Amino acid sequence: MNTLGLAFQQAIDMISRGDPELVEIVLLSLRVSLTATLIASGIALPIGAATGVAKFPGRQVLIVIFNALMGLPPVVIGLLVYLLLSRAGPLGDYGLLFTPTAMIIAQTILIVPIVAALSRQVIEDAWSEYSEQLRSLGAGLTQSALTLLWDTRFSLVTVVLAGFGRAAAEVGAVMIVGGNIAGVTRVMTTAIALETSKGDLPLALGLGIVLISLVLLLNAVAYGVKRIAQRRYG
């Protein structure tokens, strides 16, 4: 058996027996990415709903900014968070650098523009369809935004899942602010990069298989949610 085949076999064995190091890395990755996604969604969904419904000065500028930030290089976000949390930075006294909290902050900043921009489009499309009906019922902008958030919840689930997938696959920003410390801040993406450079292919492949499986699962869930919404609302 060649080296790659042996490494792949060892990777499968690590997954099947629940290798402690692999499990620890996967659980930390999920904790960081899920926490960042929940925080980002709590911030971005109201912003997306308000921007999709309300007309105010600077709205188009805000939309352009959010769309532009969707393509912001993650390493730039990592650098900015690093500068904020470093000893010389304004938040340096809290000692957050090279901790999971720093990684959550970086991922949250990365996800917010994505969820805000995508949810704004979903809400705006729904608003253009139901605005007259909501106005006739006497709903104000706030009530309309809340109603549309609930009405488009299935579409918004796919938006949130897209944000989580982006966070889970991130490597640059979390490497900068987390430091890839074993047992402390090592997540799947940073571990894959490190173990590949060290030549430890079994662990890198094992984590790669888990990460790919997670991405496939997210896509399956998003597709299932979309199908449910189509059946329910035609």
Automatic annotation (TrEMBL):
PANTHER family: PERMEASE COMPONENT OF TUNGSTATE ABC TRANSPORTER. It is a multi-pass membrane protein. Keywords: Membrane, Transmembrane, Transmembrane helix, Transport. Its main location: membrane. This is Binding-protein-dependent transport systems inner membrane component. SUPFAM superfamilies: MetI-like (SSF161098). Belongs to the binding-protein-dependent transport system permease family. The chain crosses the membrane at residues 25-49, 61-85, 97-118, 156-183, 203-225. One of its GO terms (cellular component) is plasma membrane. It comes from Nitrosococcus halophilus (strain Nc4). GO terms for biological process: transmembrane transport. It holds the Pfam family BPD_transp_1. InterPro entries: ABC_perm_TupB-like, MetI-like, MetI-like_sf. It is found in: Cell membrane. Residues 26-222 form the ABC transmembrane type-1 domain.
